[in-house]
Write a structure and sequence with these properties.
This protein is an alpha/beta fold and 430 residues long. It has twelve helices and 24 strands. The N and C termini lie close together (4 Å). The chain binds shikimate-3-phosphate (S3P) and phosphoenolpyruvate. Keywords: Amino-acid biosynthesis, Aromatic amino acid biosynthesis, Cytoplasm, Transferase.
Length: 430
């Protein structure tokens, strides 16, 4: 599907979708447990991939009409899957499930779509091999399809911290049910660190102890996943909140209210401060979980995305509207996502008349030298590129068509419906 956006002024209330990161972890943690009710779960293409993996490992995930998930876990170590596990587009699923597969007494095969089959898995495969499992890329290039044979007993592994924090999350979640536990030693500085904080929070809520150490992270073996009261509730998603928040900051004189914005370990809560620093009128009531935002002239800022890679596309669009330069730094790991998002945003915003300077580790958007013009742009089969370009379309001169918009179902299936509810005039073409 393509979506054509006519520049529009927005107003109204947006409900934050549930967190994708928390939902993935809750579904897999419930798999490691015996029986869990997961409330307010995100049901998107990516989280359904994790639910399918839990089914493949011998668990059963069912969804009630109100969206609540009832999960019968495989309770400890997974069964050997009867079929290939297809992780579709989801990096989180592939990393977390690869380490889970190394616990099974036999061989698992994992694959994904073309994008996922081009993302780096090598360091995690190396870690599993160091733990005396077998983990191979069928093409020998560190990318899926993957063949993983367990069971691992645990031990110490060294792993880089600057490719994906998901390797560490995966090892900590699996390590709890090994015999010996897993000590993860970081070989380089950790990027995307708040995502490991999310993992530690979810593990604690499931009664599993894991901790940060002087040189990495550690989890004891022989633990059971046992959520308090057999239930877990997922908080709102701040990566997703970044879109209505940025939309309000650039295209709403009358104001947008976002509900479900309760504080949690998500690093992407930083978007509230970023929008504020750029000059929008923003107020976050943390107790009520509401954010009110309205537009004002924006100015460029310098912002590091070391901890918050998923915010880069949103910040790039804000920069295109702002006066002056928006310098986005520490962005190398943003190139390893569903697409190389640094290049994708530079090129697609470029098609809309935006000047930028791309370096390996940074992207500078020259807002003052840019005139945002409506154009036909590619969503690059990447949910965050699609949503960020749609935001640009709200304030461009003329209509903007974003191609291949179906992929928003990865994290924010209701995104275009929400834009319409807020007053955006758009047309869908199948
Ligand atoms: O663990 C997670 O839930 C995620 C970690 C981040 O990836 P990296 O750790 O690979 O940067 C982030 O980009 C991704 O959207 C979700
Ligand atoms: C990179 C993302 O997710 P994943 O790594 O799970 O594919 C994302 O949601 O932006």
């Amino acid at each position: 599907m393509n979506v054509t956006i006519t520049p529009s002024s927005l107003q109204g209330t947006a409900q934050a979708p549930p967190s994708k990161s928390y939902t993935h972890r809750a579904i897999l943690a419930a798999g490691y447990a015996s029986q869990t009710t997961v409330r307010d779960a995100l049901w998107s293409a990516d989280t359904q991939a994790t639910a399918r993996a839990v089914d493949c490992f011998g668990g059963a995930v069912s969804r009630a009409d109100d969206g609540t998930l009832e999960i019968d876990g495989f309770d400890g170590r997974p069964d050997v899957p009867a079929d290939v596990i297809n992780c579709d587009n989801s990096g989180t699923t592939m990393r977390l499930v690869t380490a889970a597969a190394a616990l099974a007494d036999g061989t698992s095969v994992l694959t994904g779509d073309e994008s996922l089959r081009s993302r780096p898995q090598g360091p995690l495969l190396g870690a599993i091999a160091d733990l005396a499992g077998e983990a191979k890329s069928t093409r020998g290039n560190g990318q899926a399809p993957l063949v993983v044979t367990g069971p691992i007993a645990g031990g110490e592994v060294a792993i880089p911290g600057d490719v994906s924090s998901q390797y560490i999350t995966a090892l900590l979640m699996a390590g709890a049910v090994t015999d010996e536990g897993i000590d993860v030693v970081l070989e380089t500085e950790l990027k995307s660190a708040p995502y490991v904080d999310i993992t530690l929070e979810v593990l604690e809520d499931f009664g599993v102890e894991a901790r940060q150490t002087a040189d990495g992270f550690s989890v004891e073996g022989g633990q059971s996943y046992d959520p308090v009261g057999g239930e877990y509730a997922v908080p709102g998603d701040f990566s997703s909140i970044s879109y209505p928040l940025a939309a309000g900051a650039i295209a709403s004189e009358d104001g947008v209210r976002i509900e479900g914005a309760n504080p949690s370990a998500q690093g992407d809560t930083a978007i509230v401060d970023i929008v504020d620093r750029m000059g929008a009128d923003v107020d976050w009531d943390r107790e009520a979980g509401t954010i009110d935002v309205s537009s004002a002239p924006l100015s460029g800022i310098e912002v590091s995305v070391e901890d918050t890679p998923d915010l880069l596309p949103t910040i790039a669009t804000l920069g295109a509207v702002a006066d002056g330069d928006t310098h986005i730094t520490n962005a190398e790991h943003v190139r390893y996502k569903e697409t190389d998002r640094v290049s994708a945003m530079a090129e697609e915003l470029g098609t809309m008349g935006v000047e930028s300077t791309e370096e390996h580790d940074s992207l500078t958007i020259h807002g003052s030298e840019s005139t945002l013009e409506g154009a036909t742009v590619s969503g690059r089969a990447d949910h965050r590129i699609i949503m960020a370009l749609a935001l640009a379309g709200l304030v461009a001169d003329g209509e903007t068509t974003v191609e291949g918009t179906d992929h928003v179902d990865v994290s924010f299936p209701g995104f275009f419906g929400l834009l319409e509810e807020l007053g955006c005039s758009l047309e869908r073409q199948s």
